[in-house]
Amino acid sequence: MDETPLPEVTEQFARTLAPASGQVIGEMDAKADREGFPTVGPAVGGWLRLVARMVDADRVFEFGSGFGYSAYWMAPAVSADGQIVLTEVDADELAEAREFLDRGGFADRAVFEHGDAIETVENYDGPFDVVLIDNEKHRYTEAFEAVRDKVPVGGAVVADNMIEAGPLEFEAVQALLDGDDIDANETSRGIAAYLERVGDDPAFETGLLPLGEGVSVSIRVE
C-alpha cells in the first residue's frame, strides 16, 4: 500500500484544523492561485493566528505584507484596540491589503506603511508581541536586528521560507549551518545566516514548523 509522505499529511491535517477561512480569505486564496502570488497558505495562516492568540498579541509588525494575507489571518487574534503594522514596497498591493482588511472589519487595527520595512520599523518604539519576517530573504538577519529589541519577553518572531523559497537550496542552507564553506546563492546564504543568528541568540528559543514552505518560530525567553 502506498503511503502519503509525512509532510503532506501534516499539511493536510493542519489545513483541516485551521480556523474557518471565510469568504474574504477564500477570495485572497483564489487571487494567489490565479496570479501565482506566494502566500503562507491556510495551514500556516491558522498557525499565525494561533501564535498571536498564545502570546495575547496587542501589536504585530510585518516585514513584507503583500496584499495582506498573513495580516488578515492574524487580525482576529489581535485585541480590538491593538495594532497590526503592514509594510509593503508595492503601493498597489498595499491598497489591496487595505481593501481586504476593511472588508473583514479589521482596518481599524491596521496601519499600512508604504516603503522599505526595515526603514519603517525604525519609526516605531514597540513593543511588538508578534513579528513576521517575510521580506527579501537575504535581509532576514537585518530585519531581525532591526526589531529584536522591540520584542518583549514572551513575544514571538516568525520567519517564513525556511525550507522553500524560489532559488532557495535547502541542502546548501544545511551545509552552511554545518560550517561548510560552499558556493551558495544569495537566498540560501540569507536563510542560513538568519537561522544561525536566531539560533545563537540566548534571549530566544527557536523551533521549526514543517508547514507551507517552512516556518521558524522564535520565542523571547529573557
TrEMBL record:
Any GO BP annotation: methylation
Coiled-coil intervals: none
One Pfam family this sequence matches: Methyltransf_3
A GO molecular-function annotation: O-methyltransferase activity
Alphabetically ordered keywords of this record: Methyltransferase, S-adenosyl-L-methionine, Transferase
Gene3D superfamilies, per the entry: Vaccinia Virus protein VP39
Protein name, UniProt field: Methyltransferase domain-containing protein
Species, as recorded: Haloarcula argentinensis
Lineage, opening ranks: Archaea, Methanobacteriati, Methanobacteriota, Stenosarchaea group, Halobacteria
